[in-house]
């Protein structure tokens, strides 16, 4: 790449933990850096696991303690409005104070619809803005915008390009925007070279496990619906004691308390495990035998694809991003009617090893076609090129 000017990208992330949005941002940065076509600056609101990653990979970080202009309660009043207004002015203060630190940037890329400060910088600096929409908002995370949905739409419509992580997100949040450059690009979760080529399961190499471990992975919150997994597991465990459920992730204390109350009330303490957040993805999937995805409004389904890569069958709720990834009885199982139907699908996998093997095989062979980091980062790089072409 000697003699060719690299594209300078500034990424804004709205948080510092390594859940889906930031994992996908990391994969994007890794894919772009691998091609040696870009220089990257990562703007963060605080120090955390994502800045640890940046340090290990020599990625420039800019710490700006900005506010996300969203709220997780629906209370309205003069106090709430006053606080939200202060956050708005503080964010603009940061823009004015630190604008020179973005000198030379070709594109600003906001990694979530939960934060506006990337849009503010882009407007002030007259830099093209790419907005990556990764969530529904209220439906999945129960957040609303401080100044209403119209305020979000106002800033979204000032973007140069908008990217949705699924057709479902595109239809719900992007399709009506007048912005001309809009696209759906699925997240990539693995480099092609890292997909194990000799691990496709078959009847001669894989017998049913002596104990079936189901798992639900991700932020523990009402939107991810770990309670549905618990209720389904209770029904499964009544008929098969050689089963466990692992709840993997951290989350809301109040919701976790309600889960544990259900577990204690139904005497399931010995069969359900809270692992907390785990970094080692490979070790997780090597230990479990089925992933359940109970979110009714999963924007994409990153852990679904991770499970597919790692030969773990997925049972998912038949809606939104999950239904774009999973085809029932082909590369996974889908359910629509609550925990009773989910329990029946779990029991089906317990008794039908041939079905489990078919699902694993079909899922794994699909990953290289749709969900590699190379395909993901190339798709977004092409958006960047269109942005720069249209800006000139």
TrEMBL record:
InterPro entries: Glyco_trans_1, Glyco_trans_4-like_N, Glycosyltransferase_grp1. GO terms for molecular function: glycosyltransferase activity. This is Glycosyltransferase family 1 protein. Residues 208-365 form the Glycosyl transferase family domain. Coiled coil: none annotated. Pfam families: Glyco_transf_4 (PF13439), Glycos_transf_1 (PF00534). Residues 20-189 form the Glycosyltransferase subfamily 4-like N-terminal domain. Keywords: Transferase. It comes from Chitinophaga barathri. It comes from the Bacteria.
């Amino acid at each position: 790449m000697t003699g060719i000017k690299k594209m300078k990208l500034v990424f804004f992330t709205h948080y510092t933990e390594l859940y889906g949005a930031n994992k996908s941002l990391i994969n994007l940065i890794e894919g772009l850096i691998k091609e040696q076509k870009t220089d990257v600056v990562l703007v963060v609101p605080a120090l955390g696991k994502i800045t640890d990653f940046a340090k290990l990979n020599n990625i420039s970080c800019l710490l700006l303690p900005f506010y996300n202009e969203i709220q997780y309660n629906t209370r309205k009043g003069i106090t709430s409005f006053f606080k939200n207004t202060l956050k708005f002015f503080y964010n603009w203060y940061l823009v004015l104070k630190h604008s020179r630190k973005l000198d030379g940037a070709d594109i600003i890329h906001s990694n979530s619809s939960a934060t506006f400060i990337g849009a503010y910088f882009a407007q002030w600096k007259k830099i093209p803005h790419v907005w990556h929409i990764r969530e529904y908002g209220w439906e999945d995370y129960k957040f609303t915008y401080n100044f209403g949905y119209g305020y979000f739409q106002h800033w979204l419509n000032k973007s140069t390009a908008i990217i949705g992580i699924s057709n479902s997100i595109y239809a719900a949040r992007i399709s009506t925007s007048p912005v001309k450059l809009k696209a759906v690009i699925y997240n990539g979760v693995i480099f092609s070279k890292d997909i194990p080529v000799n691990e496709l399961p078959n009847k001669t190499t894989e017998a049913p496990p002596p104990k079936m471990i189901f798992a639900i992975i991700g932020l523990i919150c009402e939107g991810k619906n770990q309670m549905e997994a618990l209720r389904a597991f209770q029904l499964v465990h009544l008929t098969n004691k050689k089963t466990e459920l692992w709840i993997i992730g951290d989350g809301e204390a109040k919701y976790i308390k309600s889960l544990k109350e259900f577990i204690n009330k139904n005497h399931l303490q010995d069969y359900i495990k809270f692992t907390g957040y785990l970094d080692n993805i490979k070790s997780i999937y090597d230990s479990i035998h089925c992933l359940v995805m109970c979110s009714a409004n999963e924007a994409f389904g990153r852990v679904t694809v991770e499970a597919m890569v790692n030969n773990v069958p997925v049972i998912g709720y038949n809606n939104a991003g999950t239904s774009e990834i999973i085809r029932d009885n082909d590369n996974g199982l889908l359910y629509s009617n609550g925990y009773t139907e989910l329990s029946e699908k779990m029991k089906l996998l317990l008794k039908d090893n041939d079905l489990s093997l078919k699902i694993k095989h079909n899922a794994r062979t699909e990953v290289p076609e749709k969900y590699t980091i190379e395909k993901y980062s190339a798709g977004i790089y092409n958006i960047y090129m269109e942005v720069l072409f249209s800006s000139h």
